[in-house]
């Protein structure tokens, strides 16, 4: 039986003795709790539904020391329970332990859940109880809702880290440096973008992290088009081709339409001062 893999890595599957199974978009605190139950020859089995947008597949390995093996959901979801377990045993011949969460289900019509897994797998099955943070169940869908609401602080609590996106630098309208402040304009694919507005952020360029402020949204005051723009505080940055990373910390305000460039500029300067104060007070 062939399991279709969407990528391969270098760790030999024959050495793997324990796996954690799930979608793992976000690599959030509950996912990390599962990984704590892996042994030193552990691995992550990530089932790709195609909807990941918190930690899209190629950015996921960054958040765990365990190798991640990816499988395409469409190629395994039709399986009856015994065949799913058989596949795991074939893929990982030394497998002794499987770690899943309380809500893990698998196989045809998601008919098989943790009890069935215990019955079918000849080894240890560890089932993790529901993990909550401040009484809120940690799930990728809950984190997405906080991001869409602009509640970065709650999203970050559930993630156990600052929400980070990757983008490619593009040329902006050319208005920023002249009329407002210089910004790096980004094209962002694959990642969920938080609600439109202005955010306190950190920006990583060429492995260096800078304090920054980021605007996300339709530039309703200028050309109306959607933009992701970052202004690096206290540094002169030359535009370059680096992939840029933005870590979101806190939302300052909503996107707004201003009657003049002058008013927008004044507001941007206020936003920058507030952001600088934030960084002064946390360090
Ligand atoms: C901190 C900050 C806040 C911003 N806030 C708004 C806003 O509320 N409304 C808006 O239309 N544009 C806002 N902008 C975007 C400006 O319109 C944008 O920087 C300007 O159009 C220059 O774009 P350019 O870099 O493509 O030349 C903001 C930009 C920054 C850096
Ligand atoms: N809050 C949680 N508590 C315990 N286990 C969880 C929790 N969230 C996810 N898991 C487990 O982690 C694995 C990956 O789950 P997944 O469905 O990708 O997470 P999410 O619910 O965040 O989308 C599954 O085995 C799942 O049961």
From TrEMBL:
Classification via InterPro entries: Riboflavin_kinase (IPR023468), Riboflavin_kinase_bac (IPR002606), Riboflavin_kinase_bac/euk (IPR015865), Riboflavin_kinase_dom_sf (IPR023465), Rossmann-like_a/b/a_fold (IPR014729)
Keywords: ATP-binding, FAD, Flavoprotein, FMN, Kinase, Nucleotide-binding, Nucleotidyltransferase, Transferase
Gene3D superfamilies: HUPs, Riboflavin kinase-like
Enzyme class per UniProt: transferase
Protein EC: 2.7.1.26, 2.7.7.2
Known catalytic reactions: FMN + ATP + H(+) = FAD + diphosphate; riboflavin + ATP = FMN + ADP + H(+)
Every Riboflavin kinase domain range: 158-280
GO molecular function, one term: FMN adenylyltransferase activity
GO biological process: FAD biosynthetic process; FMN biosynthetic process; riboflavin biosynthetic process
Keyword Membrane set for record: no
Pathway annotation from the record: Cofactor biosynthesis; FMN biosynthesis; FMN from riboflavin (ATP route): step 1/1; Cofactor biosynthesis; FAD biosynthesis; FAD from FMN: step 1/1
Superkingdom of origin: Bacteria
Family the entry assigns: Belongs to the ribF family.
PANTHER family, A to Z: RIBOFLAVIN KINASE, RIBOFLAVIN KINASE/FMN ADENYLYLTRANSFERASE
Role this protein plays: Catalyzes the phosphorylation of riboflavin to FMN followed by the adenylation of FMN to FAD.
Protein name listed in UniProt: Riboflavin biosynthesis protein
């Amino acid at each position: 039986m062939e399991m279709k893999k969407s990528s391969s890595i270098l760790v030999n599957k024959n050495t793997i003795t324990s796996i954690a199974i799930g979608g793992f978009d976000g690599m959030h605190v509950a996912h990390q709790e599962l990984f704590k139950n892996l042994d030193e020859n552990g691995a992550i089995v990530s089932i790709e539904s195609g909807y990941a947008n918190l930690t899209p597949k190629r950015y996921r390995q960054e958040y765990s020391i365990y190798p991640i093996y990816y499988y395409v959901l469409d190629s395994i979801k039709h399986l009856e329970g015994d065949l799913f377990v058989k596949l795991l045993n074939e893929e990982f011949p030394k497998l002794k332990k499987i770690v899943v969460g309380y809500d893990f289900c698998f196989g045809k019509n998601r008919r098989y859940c943790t009890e069935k897994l215990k019955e079918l797998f000849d080894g240890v099955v560890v089932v993790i109880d529901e993990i909550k943070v401040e009484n809120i169940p940690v799930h990728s869908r809950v984190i997405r809702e906080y991001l869409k609401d602009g509640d970065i602080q709650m999203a970050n609590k559930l993630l156990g880290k600052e929400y980070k996106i990757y983008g490619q630098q593009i040329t902006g309208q050319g208005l920023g440096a002249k009329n407002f402040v210089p910004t790096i304009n980004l094209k962002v694919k694959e990642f969920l973008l938080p609600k439109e507005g202005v955010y306190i952020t950190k920006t990583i360029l060429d492995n260096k992290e800078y304090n920054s402020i980021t605007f996300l949204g339709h530039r309703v005051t200028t050309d109306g088009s959607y933009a992701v723009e970052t202004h690096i505080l206290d540094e002169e940055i030359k535009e370059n081709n680096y992939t840029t990373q933005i870590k979101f910390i806190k939302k300052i305000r909503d996107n707004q339409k201003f009657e003049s460039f002058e008013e927008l500029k004044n507001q941007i300067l206020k936003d920058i001062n507030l952001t600088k104060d934030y960084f002064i007070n946390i360090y």
